[in-house]
């Protein structure tokens, strides 16, 4: 190890850049993709298209930030797509059917996300259910409740919620929400006791427990946080359409997991960063956008995205091997 | 040396496996240096050496896990290489590890034949499966139900299944890595009966154990290793003191630098602690400045007692009092707040977050207590981690380095450092020097000395009797979940401790309790 340090000090700028590129594979891939797309079609690098990409990536990015907490603790949350729909639908229901003020229904939506996440967290931490199973159950339950509330039809949402999908002073709110959610995610993970505890729990739950960390409480908070993030993503989606859709967010949990993993997190836990997740989410959106511009059918897009996920993780495996 | 070696082996058959001046380095560390070992059919070769002497590296070279950097391996007198475990198996070399390679949910028969399941039209041929498995079990003359689930068997029976599995693959060389560590006295007798039978059948065996009496009972010759060097090959019935002298290579006084500070007030008092199936009626006191050793066999309940004091496991009744304050119990953070620091027995699985940095590992217990409004005190944690790493002489490239890069001894110092940072003055040490090399051991003993000089109290569980005798001021010996007696450190011999340690093991009631302890361990 001491030799590694010496060689790092001696290393030239070129190998430093190589090292950096190896450690930031997703970012390098994103930049390369953007350059490639710009060469292929000048339409790619226009302000409206970039804003479009930002808006398109916002929902998945917000879900993925929440998912980052979960994956850092070596967990998984399959329910975020359904919870997004449930939070949004509950909010719309209380606005359209009950008649509560818009901003209250917005808070209700977020609270429902918190509640759903906390229930998953409690059944994982205290009920000892595997995270995969507990959140699979919540995925089904949350979707079911959404359908029951909505009777299968869209419900118009409150103006306060719709504001989340609009553009003010040239700034699209979905992008602002994504930035806000990302900053909070970064702050929690890097600066707070809660965040640092997540890394310890994901790295070695037993060592964390024996060092006095309240592992179970933290796990409940982690899934509750993921639930709030999911609900926020659902409200943003709703805002763009001005109505809550019963089938909103179906399959989004997989996009969120993909974004986190492309961003460099390991499903084994203990690693993951907000910046990585953001890059992962944007990468997914750029691929979709680029293929759309290039008139590639959406069927092919799924194949490409699958390849990118496999490539990103395979790249990480190689990186970990060479660094050993 | 050459002459005595010829004399030692003049009536022995030719070796079937030879390591000829093999060496192995990991980075700059020379783990094995020009060691030669001959394994002969029908003979038991015991490997003796302290932790870190290189025994496990050596057997990993025999079983194809590691390749030697220098020297050569000969099978049946022909130079060869063992690039992987498959090749070693094809030469008939099988290793029985402490952690058995069995599938607990499958039957005995399926486990014996695992990977070689007989088929008929692509389906499992259960008739052949059972017949071949039975033939393997008959080889060692052990009566085990073929249809029993392996997980339902005791650890001794599982070991027999594993040995039968190895033999059914035509193993000629069996490497037994501390096979007796988890066994009771009677189970050890049974294992040794099997070993004797296998000797008669011409199987060569390499036997690793820390117990000199076992080596004398079952071994033919013993090879002593120290710090990766071959020291001597001797008849297995060589005088124990001589073996210890060769193994340690220096006098005990230097190796255990215990300084006895003034003894103060009781810091840790445990009164009538009971936990069904784990331990019974445990009472003990550790005073400021004192190191109390907790000795006993594996499964005697030592770890369970320490875990309960640390608040990891709940107890049925009894009191834990720290510096006059009674703890509610079953609450780790309460124990930590009152000054208890717990160094668990398995450093990698329980002590460290291996993927995290040295700094994060050091600061784990103080993460929340030093925080302001939920925010980590980053600069403070960093500064204090740097101070304690310096003080404990943790050798590393930087505080940001992953702790997995560090040697076992430096990793363990980091676990100590965590509790130094937390200001713990009651340290519960569970096998504090397991897997730590000799030099780092002394450094850890010095840390223990410093803690007690500052008025700390230390309760130390250790299976290494020389360590207990050398570092503890008093020794409590546990047997069958009870404290069987107390011995002063001065003038006590290993035999005195062992006599107390086995005092409750031989009656069948406690043996059942021991089995239960094993089970509860597995449940966790």
Q: How many strand units of chain B?
A: 22
Largest sheet geometry of chain B? 6 strands, mixed
Give the mean pLDDT of chain B. Answer: 85
CATH homology-level superfamily of the largest domain in chain B: P-loop containing nucleotide triphosphate hydrolases
Tell me the helix content of chain A: over 70%
> What fraction of residues of chain A sit in β-strands?
under 5%
> Which ranges of chain A are low-confidence, i.e. pLDDT below 50, for 5 or more consecutive residues?
1-10
Helix % of chain B is 25-40%
GO molecular function (chain A): transmembrane transporter activity
InterPro entries (chain A): ABC_transp_permease
Organism (chain A): Corynebacterium glutamicum (strain ATCC 13032 / DSM 20300 / JCM 1318 / BCRC 11384 / CCUG 27702 / LMG 3730 / NBRC 12168 / NCIMB 10025 / NRRL B-2784 / 534)
GO cellular component, one term (chain A): plasma membrane
Can you summarize this structure?
Helices cover 77% and strands 2% of the residues of chain A.
Secondary structure blueprint with pairings:
The complex is a heterodimer of chains A (about 325) and B (about 525).
Chain A lengths: L1 H9 L2 H11 L1 H16 L6 H26 L7 H19 L3 H24 L5 H20 L4 E2 L2 H4 L4 E2 L2 E2 H19 L1 H11 L1 H6 L4 H27 L1 E2 L7 H11 L11 H20 L4 H26 L1
Antiparallel strand pairs in A: 1-4, 2-3
Helix pairs in contact in A: 3-14, 4-9, 4-10, 4-12, 4-13, 4-14, 5-6, 5-7, 5-12, 6-7, 6-12, 9-10, 9-12, 10-12, 13-14, 13-15, 14-15
Chain B lengths: L1 H7 L8 E10 L2 E11 L4 E5 L6 H8 L7 E6 L2 E3 L4 H6 L2 E4 L11 H5 L6 E2 L2 E2 L1 H15 L14 H14 L4 E5 L7 H16 L3 E5 L3 H7 L2 E6 L2 E7 L4 H9 L3 H4 L10 E10 L3 E9 L3 E6 L5 H8 L7 E6 L2 E2 L5 H6 L2 E4 L3 H5 L6 H5 L15 H14 L16 H14 L4 E5 L7 H16 L3 E5 L3 H7 L2 E6 L2 E7 L5 H8 L6 H16 L1
Parallel strand pairs in B: 3-10, 3-11, 6-9, 9-10, 15-20, 15-21, 18-19, 19-20
Antiparallel strand pairs in B: 1-2, 1-4, 4-5, 7-8, 11-12, 13-14, 13-16, 16-17, 21-22
Helix pairs in contact in B: 5-6, 15-16, 16-17
């Amino acid at each position: 190890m001491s030799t590694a340090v010496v060689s790092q000090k001696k290393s030239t700028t070129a190998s430093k850049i190589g090292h950096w590129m190896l450690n930031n594979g997703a970012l390098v891939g994103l930049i390369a993709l953007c350059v490639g797309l710009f060469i292929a079609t000048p339409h790619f690098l226009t302000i409206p298209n970039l804003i479009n990409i930002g808006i398109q990536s916002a929902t998945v990015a917000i879900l993925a930030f929440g998912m980052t907490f979960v994956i850092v603790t070596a967990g998984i949350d399959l329910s975020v797509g359904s919870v997004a729909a449930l939070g949004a639908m509950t909010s719309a229901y209380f606005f359209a059917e009950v008649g509560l003020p818009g901003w209250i229904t917005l808070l209700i939506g977020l609270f429902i996300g918190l509640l759903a996440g906390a229930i998953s967290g409690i059944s994982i931490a205290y009920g000892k259910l595997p995270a995969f199973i507990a959140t699979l159950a919540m995925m089904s339950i949350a979707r079911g409740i959404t359908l029951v509330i909505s009777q299968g039809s869209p419900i118009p949402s409150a103006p306060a919620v719709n504001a989340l999908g609009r553009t003010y002073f040239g700034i699209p709110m979905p992008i602002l929400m994504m930035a806000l959610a990302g900053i909070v995610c970064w702050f929690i993970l890097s600066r707070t006791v809660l965040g640092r505890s997540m890394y310890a729990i994901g790295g070695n739950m037993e060592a964390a427990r024996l060092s006095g960390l309240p592992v179970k409480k933290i796990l409940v908070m982690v899934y509750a946080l993921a639930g709030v993030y999911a609900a926020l993503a659902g409200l943003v989606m709703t805002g763009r359409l001005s109505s809550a859709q019963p089938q909103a967010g179906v399959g989004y949990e997989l996009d969120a997991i993909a974004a986190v993993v492309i961003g460099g997190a390991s499903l084994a836990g203990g690693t993951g960063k907000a910046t990585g997740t953001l890059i992962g989410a944007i990468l997914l959106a750029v691929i979709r956008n680029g293929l759309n511009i290039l008139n590639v059918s959406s069927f092919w897009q799924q194949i490409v995205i699958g390849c990118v996920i496999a490539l990103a993780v395979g790249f990480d495996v190689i990186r970990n091997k060479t660094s050993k | 040396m050459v002459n005595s070696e010829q004399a030692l082996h003049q009536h022995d058959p030719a070796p079937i496996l030879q390591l000829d001046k093999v060496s192995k380095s990991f980075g700059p560390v020379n783990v094995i240096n020009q060691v030669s070992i001959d394994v002969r059919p029908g003979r038991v070769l015991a490997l003796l050496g302290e932790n870190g002497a290189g025994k496990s590296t050596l057997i990993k070279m025999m079983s194809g896990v590691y390749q030697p950097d220098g020297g050569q391996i000969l099978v049946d007198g022909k130079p060869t290489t063992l690039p992987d475990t498959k090749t070693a198996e094809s030469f008939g070399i099988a290793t029985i590890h402490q952690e058995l390679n069995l599938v607990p949910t499958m039957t005995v028969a399926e486990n014996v034949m695992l990977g070689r399941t007989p088929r008929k039209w692509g389906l499992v041929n259960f008739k052949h499966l059972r017949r071949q498995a039975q033939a393997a079990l008959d080889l060692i003359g052990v009566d085990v139900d073929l249809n029993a689930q392996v997980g339902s068997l005791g650890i001794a029976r599982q070991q027999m299944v594993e040995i039968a599995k190895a033999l059914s693959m035509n193993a000629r060389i069996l490497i037994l890595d501390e096979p007796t560590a988890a066994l009771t006295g009677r189970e050890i007798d049974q294992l040794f009966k099997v070993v004797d039978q296998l000797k008669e059948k011409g199987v060569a065996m390499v036997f690793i154990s820390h117990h000199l009496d076992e080596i004398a009972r079952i071994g033919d010759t013993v090879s002593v290793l120290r710090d990766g060097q071959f020291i001597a090959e001797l008849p297995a019935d060589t005088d124990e003191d001589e073996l210890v002298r060769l193994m340690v290579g220096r006098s005990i006084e230097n190796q255990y630098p215990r300084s006895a500070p003034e003894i103060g007030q009781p810091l840790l008092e445990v009164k009538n602690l009971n936990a069904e199936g784990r331990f019974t009626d445990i009472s003990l006191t550790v005073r400021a400045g004192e190191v109390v050793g907790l000795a006993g066999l594996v499964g005697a309940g030592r770890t369970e007692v320490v875990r309960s004091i640390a608040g990891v496991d709940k107890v049925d009744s009894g009191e834990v009092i720290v510096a006059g304050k009674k703890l509610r119990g079953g609450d780790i953070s309460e124990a930590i707040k009152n000054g208890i620091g717990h160094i668990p027995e398995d450093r990698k699985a329980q002590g460290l977050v291996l993927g995290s940095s040295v700094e994060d590992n050091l600061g784990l217990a103080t993460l929340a207590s030093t925080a302001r409004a939920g925010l980590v005190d980053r600069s403070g944690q960093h500064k204090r981690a740097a101070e304690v790493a310096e003080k404990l002489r943790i050798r590393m490239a930087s505080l940001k380095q992953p702790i997995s890069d560090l040697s076992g001894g430096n990793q363990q110092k980091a676990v100590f450092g965590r509790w130094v940072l937390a200001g713990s003055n009651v340290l519960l040490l569970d096998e504090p020097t397991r897997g730590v090399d000799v030099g780092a051991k002394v450094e850890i003993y010095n840390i223990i000395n410093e803690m007690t000089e500052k008025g700390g109290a230390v309760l130390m569980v250790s299976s290494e009797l020389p360590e207990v005798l050398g570092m503890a001021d008093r020794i409590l010996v546990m047997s069958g979940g009870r404290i069987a007696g107390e011995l002063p450190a001065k003038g006590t011999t290993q035999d005195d401790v062992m006599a107390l340690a086995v005092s409750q093991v031989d009656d069948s009631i406690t043996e059942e309790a021991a089995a239960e302890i094993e089970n509860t361990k597995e449940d966790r």
